[in-house]
Amino acid sequence: xxxxxxLATEVEPTWCxxxxxxxxxxxxxxxxxxxxxxxxxxxxxxxxxxxxxxVNFINVCxxxxxxxxxxPVAVGAKTxxxxxxxxxQGGEGGIITEGANHFIHACQRNDDITVLVNNNYVFGLxxxxxxxxxxxxxxxxxxxxxxxFEPLSAIDLAAVSGGSFLARTLASDIKKTxxxxxxxxxxxxxxxxxxxxxxxxxxKELMEIHGQWVxxxxxxxxxxxxxxxxxxxLYNYK
Amino acid sequence: xQSKRQLKTIKVRYNIYKNYNDxxxxxxxxxxxxxxxxxxxxxxxxxxxxxxxxxxxxxxGFFTLVxxxxxxxIRGGDNHIQVIFSQRPFLTPDxxxxxxxxxxxxxxxxxxxxxRGQGVGFESSELGLEKIAEKIGNPLVINTxxxxxxxxxxxxxxxxxxxxxxxxxxxxxxxxxxxxxAVSEGFSLNKKESFKIEIPxxxxxxxxxxxxxxxxxxxxxxxxxxxxxxxxxxxxxxxxLLAEAEINLFRPExxxxxxxxxxxxxxxxxxxxxxxxGGGFSLMVEGLGLAGIAEIPIVIxxxxxxxxxxxxxxxxxxxDLNFAINAGHGEFPRIVLTPGDLEESYRLGLEAxxxxxxxxxxxxLMTDKYLAESRFSVEKEIIEKIRVKIDRGKLAEYKNYNDxxxxEFSSDGISKRAFPGQxxxxxxxxxxxxxxxxxxxxxxxxxxxxxxxxxxxxLKGGFEVYGEKGAKTFIAGWGSTKEILLDLLxxxxxxxxxxxxxxxxxPKEAEAFMKKAEKVIIIEGNFSGQLAxxxxxxxxxxxxxxxxxxGRPFFKEELAKLISKFKK
Lengths: 238, 568
Fold this sequence. Notes:
The structure holds two protein chains of two kinds.
Chain A: H1 20-34, E1 42-46, E2 61-64, H2 70-80, E3 85-91, H3 92-98, H4 100-108, E4 114-119, E5 122-123, E6 129-130, H5 154-161, E7 165-170, H6 174-186, E8 191-196, E9 212-214, E10 230-236
Chain B: H1 4-18, H2 24-29, E1 33-42, H3 46-59, E2 63-69, E3 76-86, E4 97-102, H4 105-112, E5 115-123, H5 124-127, H6 129-136, H7 142-154, H8 158-168, H9 173-189, E6 206-210, H10 211-221, E7 226-229, H11 236-242, E8 248-250, H12 255-267, E9 272-276, H13 278-294, E10 298-304, H14 321-326, E11 335-337, H15 342-359, E12 362-368, H16 369-373, E13 375-379, H17 380-384, E14 426-428, H18 442-453, E15 463-467, E16 473-478, H19 482-491, E17 496-500, H20 510-516, E18 519-524, H21 530-539, E19 544-547, H22 556-567
Parallel strand pairs in B: 1-4, 4-5, 7-8, 7-9, 9-10, 10-12, 11-12, 16-17, 16-18, 18-19
Antiparallel strand pairs in B: 1-3, 2-3, 6-13, 15-17
Helix pairs in contact in B: 3-7, 3-8, 6-7, 6-9, 7-9, 8-9, 10-11, 10-15, 12-13
């Protein structure tokens, strides 16, 4: 059996105190342990950014790629060795801003990978600029008067592009995030878990996120598209 | 159609040239070498005609070159191919032609001016080729009917062309039947006199490939398991040829995804590659740096075309040498290969994967539209003799991977590679320590840079010397000019010729040959003289430059004129 301890490295996380990253890290470890996956058989391709620094904090086959590019690297690795569990990680900056093209097309092809998006609604590591997912009206260092644009949603993009497993969780809810990640990595085809974790430094004003937990996946995509406060397994097409 | 009188002149002409043997230039290409052109709108089957015709000529023992020019469109316009054939290998496209067949009056008007003084030209409707196709009941056989006619004008046996047509359509019996009919009908259109061309006495087995075709053969032979290719002229045929092969073929959303996926596949254990042209390579550059620092082997086929930007999309160029050598921020080792002919394309296509894995670096294999899409010929034996054993480099294979370090320091800078599934380990685009963890410690950085930089220290070779080794005048080139410059040597046997097939890392041993020469003339297909600049930078040697940057390869007469200026 794989123990949570087997997944630890000696490197101390570099995240800010109170960052959702800690909870996310715990949830991913739980999901891997729950499925009894050996670290050598799990590939996580990382983006660049705060959440992507996790490459140093978890003992699997981690590959720190480039900003926006964790998905195509994952697609290549999975194609070369389908036995591997392949996860592409990224912030909303990497996945639906810089790398949105890859995200849409991986959905369209229903590539057999899991994408984990850590959505903190802002570019964190570069000190707080608005991203494509920053909610309208949010004040950031590049939108001091409030963000004028409607945000992109990873779930919505995936839904219209062909993604077959779609979930949204709060990082702070480790148990539900771990469950969603566990289901996602067992899903055959493209799976997405959007982990909402507002930034404790740059998007503090979004910390109080309220939403509703959806107990059962929807059968029709139009029932959850645009509903950015829905959490849970929103869609699970087998 | 030209008159009977002109056809007679042809016969006389070839008799005349037998008396011109004293003239060096004529000796090699007016008597032993024929240039013909087929022109027609896109979609008329011109390219297929070139393939069939040249392969039939190979059956007779001729070496062939089929050089296509076409605009960027699918139907209409003016596609044309030049077919050169000779008893001797190494051929150059011509500006002038001996024989023209045009499908359509406009195409005829466009090209008739290229006929040599006594050359002959034919237009399809005047010949009645359309009528033949109509009679057979399929407009598509018009090109085969045209070939039948040309074959008869050339004075060859119908049976040989028929054999080639049978080979081309062996899987489609119905199509074969109508094409054979078209050959016969076309052949019997010519009731007049024919060229009297001497057929090679000793029949060598000659094979015929485009650069892309033989490169694809090498890619598959090398055990490449993953290819990510976004369509782009001039590498499209690699994509379509691989689509029929046993390989994971990924048509990505863009070239960035392409190189990233290839890196992912290589990381997970497959030999992998991408193919693109300059525009796509521009997008791939960040992946080049990733492969550099993360030490992921990858082969990048870079088929050059005329830039910058969209440039002349279906024309050739040798203007991306600087780009290939210097692309990417930061400093990291890479290998740039520039094969010049079929033999080298095959050998270096095989070697590229070994080099990438042995040194864990990106390898850029450069071709261009001229090499990639023209059809060349080579003795079968030469290709068969090329044997390159697969060498996957240093691999980690232990019972227990406890002490495994992906980027372990070693005397040659090369660390053992493990793959996911063997052990857990970190691969990193950040500067990292031996275990792969991100690390910006100053001492670690210095050691890691030194480790990566020394990986290529033991590379050997990189160039070939032809002609007179102690020559007063040396010419030099790289990539697709090889056959053209070897052809030039037939007329200038006193020249030395340096062909660079691996301009980067620059082979320092080449310096000695150029130092001894009184004059070095660099011949390349770009505006500024990129190889000449590289040689100057690496050796201090100043050279003369013969440059051409109009999208076309050097032509026979043109190059002879340019070189003769320096020979005075």
